[in-house]
Amino acid sequence: MKYAFFQGCNIPIRIQQYATSTTAVLQHFGITLEVVPEFNCCGYPARNVDEKAYLLPSVRNLAIAEKKGLDILVICNCCFASLQKTKNVMAKDSGLLAEMNSILAKEDLKYSGTAEVKHYLTVLHEQVGAETIKKKLVKMFTDLKVSVIHGCHILRPREITTFDNSFMPRITEELLLPTGARSLDWRGSLECCGAALAGINNDLSHKLLKEKISGAQDAGADFITPICSYCHLQFDTMQLNMQKDNPEAKLLPVLLFPQLLGLCLGLDEAALGIEQNSTISSDNIERIKSLLGPPKEEKKKKKATAAA
Amino acid sequence: MMNFDILLGLSLVICLVGLIIRLSIWFSQGTRSPAPGTSAAARISAALQGALGTIFSGRIVRMIKSLFVDLLGQERIFNKNFLRWVAHTLIFFGFVPLLLMHAMSPQTNPLNPFLFLRNLFGLMVLAGVAIAVYRRLTLKAQRLRSAPSDWAALVFIGVIILSGMLLEGAKMSSYSKYQSMVEEYGSSDEEEAKALEAFWVQENGLVSPNVQLPPAPELVQKGMEVNGTSCIDCHASNRTAFAGFAMAKVTWPISALLGDAAAVTMFQYLHILACLAFLAWLPFSKMFHIIAAPLSLIVKRVSGDTITEPANILTSRMIGLSACTHCGTCSLECSSNMFYESFGNDFILPSEKVQYLKKIMAGKETDPAVLKKMQEGLYVCTSCDRCTTVCPSGINLKELFVSARYMLLKQGMPEKSLLSHFSFPLALAQNFADDHLQALKKVTDQFKKSFQHLTDIPVPVTIGSGKGFSNTSFRGCYSCQRCTNICPVVRSFDNPVEALGMLPHQIMFSLGIGNVDLAMGSQMIWSCSTCYLCQEHCPNQVELCDIFYTLKNGALNKIEAGANA
Predict the structure, then answer these.
(1) What interface predicted TM-score (ipTM) does this complex get?
(2) Disulfide: which of A233, B114, B229, B421 matches B109 by Cβ 3.0-4.6 Å?
(3) Does any domain span residue B49?
């Protein structure tokens, strides 16, 4: 199975480890990701300014995937939502579709809506499945508490994203379960990281971020696991920026989901790029590794063979 | 050739003056200075120190590597596009040997391998130019912009080579040229002369009024012997000059029309004038990249885009600007390409920004309307840094653009795109943080001025039509206030009404009474974190977050219209 890998603008230059770790994990399950240099911005940054300018870039991206005969796999929530929103609008507004297709025609591209958009968690959850993941595990966490922050634009609006139950999502928890890591129930899990306000209203943006950091820490999290690349940058970069003003603040380190899963799958650590997370210290990494033990599956197998 | 010496001298002087001007720009102009008031002398000395510091240190290894990998190998082009690499390599490795072995020597050597090589190198350059022309034509739809100067460079190079080939062809067919050669080197025997002429007609492309076509084989055979004793030691066969030989067929009708000597002179003038004009034009055009691009590439390889000396940051930016060949690679790869299609602003394309930046740095352009477009172009950027990653000349474009962005914003024109997620990477990077806040304040001030507020509205409130507002889901609002109660932004303030102007449910209400303007003027829409909790929790499917986006679009358009009025 192959997907056109949509990395967006932030990941290739600021969060390469998210791309390499996701690629490594999916590769492990026989899913290849084709990097498509022709892809452009998803359009999200322009949404405040002009709705049409927001939609056009994703129409082009979808048309490129269509031409390649591939579905799109996305990491970033905001890219995901932009692509899904575009598909939704294009299905309803044929006038706008014609207008945008006339722009694409110059480059010999055409949108007809055949390319699907999948979040990598959906692919792991539906196509691979928790059971298969469980079978492939070579290690398992004995005691690791993470706070997952889903990010808004993967969950809502639910009619557009169609990712998971937007009030009680379960995909992340079900994917974390086999790894032995505990996904904490905490109040920020479904809320905003403040990224959308950064650079527009920094005070408010910081306030929302701080609320999430302390929320996760109060819940007892060892690590925060952001799904969206914007959330990641808020926790992994903005948190450090804020710490310059408040050096006493306790740092909440970031561990990405494919990094966490990759460790349990015994993947090459260089590809997982954990040390590239700016908030993670070498002590943190040692600690994570020390929490890895043998997978539970083995015991069951032994019992099974003994019974046989 | 008196004229030639004068013309050569003149073009050399122009070239030299041009070079001095271009080099002085490196040290005198700059974007916003990280080292205010650095004099040109200080910058030259800092640059020299940097260069010497590199040469006399371990970093010399990187410099030498750059020489082979970046300059001769053109690795950056190779990695991006093989065909383009072929074009550049053909032009470079065709032109440089021609310059050294042909242009720099006073006599055109008629012996091999020179005769053959001149033609080979010439053909290489022409093939490279042809690929470049093909590339510019076929990539037009992918937003590769070609300026007249881009075509001029290709035409110049093409004309230089083609005119050289035509000149060679005209000389080959020229009877008067042949006669003067025979007079100088040949035998006086009439029989032999006749045979030699027949041989040259047959074999060397000569057009003679005395030889009937086809010449008799015995005569040609005899002529070959004469040629062997009298000519071959000093003049190789014209057929080895394959391009010129082929051109003789093209030039012959012109020679017939003008007379062969006149045709030779004409092509000679064309060739020499093209070369000299190119030389004079070079420093004033993108061909200056011959000097600037290697430097830019070496600086990039040695410094890895992390220059610490403030004076050198300025200088390296200026070297970068002058190293741009307007090849358009950045624009082809630009992630904002579709915003260019939507907003119709050329300056969204990085290659066009660079051209205009050169003017701004030189203090040439002050038209506020153009500057405003430039400002938008600099701002509608996703900060994906692809332009910098792919630039074949190794220009640190992102740094140039960011510094230029704040240089323009400082001039006081509000930029509406500041109120977008384009600001996110800038907030992360924290460069020019204070400048960003000041610029932001200008837009928000304008925003406040442009809209009426709840307190300004006379009582009793009139109910408007609210027509033309695309998203009508607000009609489903029955003021249960669930949106406001779930909003993480509202929750963040002790006195949310004071901080936000209106709360989400109030905005829906103002739309309900047809007052779109009031809704657009609320601070709430710019404080919305776009988390969609309100919309998700609304019991009656009011699309609050989407409506906020529509209001934001409308508000910015109104601000823009007001600013232009």
Answers:
(1) 0.95
(2) B114
(3) no
